[in-house]
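Below is a filled-in request sheet from our internal design queue. Each sheet records the structural input a requester submitted and the sequence that came back. We keep these sheets so that new team members can see what a complete request looks like end to end.

REQUESTER: design group, bay 2
PRIORITY: normal
MODE: inverse folding
CHAIN LENGTH: 305
BACKBONE (tokenized):
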């Protein structure tokens, strides 16, 4: 199947699962080599955590991020096709730029491992929280955020009906109470990601990013913070820095792909099917016809060959 006119989507945290990538490592030389490279960069067997758990270890942010990146990059290389454009959800933006050749793989593994550690260390455990508001009115959420006491902000705009807020625990709980959405879920995360509380992590990561070479991507990548097609290395670096403490505008990204560019074929490259579900739902709401493929293992590769 020729995918040159498609958009590749790269998943972020929440898509990890025990066993991910095992078939890639067991059945392909590229999978074995890249997992071994990740283990060497980190100095411990992240591959064993991916394949065998325990889940508590895989869910640690500094493990989750390089694990997801590694699986996405292996799948991309095994697929052997170049998309028209790509986008990644939070951590997935690093995967997208790595696959586009902007970041060298080993450097990307180190970067996202540090990113996870910095984000975890930015806020004491228990001080922050994140909550998904499902079916809430966007304007009502924004008004509640503006009037809230304490630090709380929009973290993800995932779809027309799903917003995620992040910040100080009491402030997040206050916004949830005042908005009273049809459904809400407090997320099982270890820190309030994509909120102003991540400013210390952004400052630490900026040092690493400045020390890392960034090449121009082989294909455009839509960044999270501006919903803009990035075609230069310096712009990629700047977007990844600002992304740490700012919202992931995923709904706006999907609208751009579906409406502005008219992309009809999508491939989610990595563990899980979260992004496939979001693009399917948004396409239905916008009355757009799409073809969606989820590429998470060997069997999926065979279907796209």
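RETURNED SEQUENCE:
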């Amino acid at each position: 199947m020729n995918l040159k006119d498609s958009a590749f989507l790269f998943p972020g945290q929440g898509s990890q699962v025990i066993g991910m990538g095992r078939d890639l490592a067991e059945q392909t030389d590229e999978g074995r080599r890249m997992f071994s490279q990740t283990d060497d960069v980190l100095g411990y067997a992240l591959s064993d955590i991916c394949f065998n758990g325990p889940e508590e270890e895989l869910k640690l942010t500094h493990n989750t991020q390089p694990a997801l990146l590694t699986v996405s990059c292996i799948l991309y290389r095994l697929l052997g096709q170049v998309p028209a454009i790509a986008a990644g959800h939070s951590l997935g933006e690093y995967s997208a730029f790595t696959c586009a050749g902007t970041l060298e793989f080993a450097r990307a593994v180190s970067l996202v491992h540090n990113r996870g550690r910095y984000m975890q260390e930015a806020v004491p455990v228990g001080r922050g929280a994140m909550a998904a508001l499902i079916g809430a009115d966007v304007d009502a959420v924004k008004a509640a955020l503006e009037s809230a006491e304490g630090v709380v902000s929009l973290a993800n705009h995932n779809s027309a009906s799903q917003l995620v807020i992040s910040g100080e625990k009491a402030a997040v709980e206050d916004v949830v109470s005042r908005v009273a959405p049809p459904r809400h879920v407090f997320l099982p995360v270890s820190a309030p990601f994509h909120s102003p509380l991540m400013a210390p992590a952004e400052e630490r990561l900026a040092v690493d990013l400045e020390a890392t070479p960034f090449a121009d991507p082989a294909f455009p990548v839509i960044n999270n913070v501006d919903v803009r097609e990035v075609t230069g290395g310096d712009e990629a670096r700047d977007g990844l820095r600002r992304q740490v403490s700012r919202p992931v505008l995923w709904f706006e990204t999907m609208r751009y792909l579906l409406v502005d560019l008219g992309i009809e074929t999508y491939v989610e490259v990595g563990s899980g099917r979260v992004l496939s579900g979001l693009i399917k739902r948004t396409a239905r709401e916008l009355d757009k016809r799409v073809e969606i493929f989820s590429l998470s293992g060997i069997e999926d590769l065979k279907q796209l060959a």
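SHEET NOTES:
- Residues 223 and 239 are 7 Å apart (CA to CA).
- The beta strands are 7-10, 85-88, 128-134, 152-159, 162-168, 183-186, 221-222, 229-230, 265-269, 291-295.
FILED BY: M.R.
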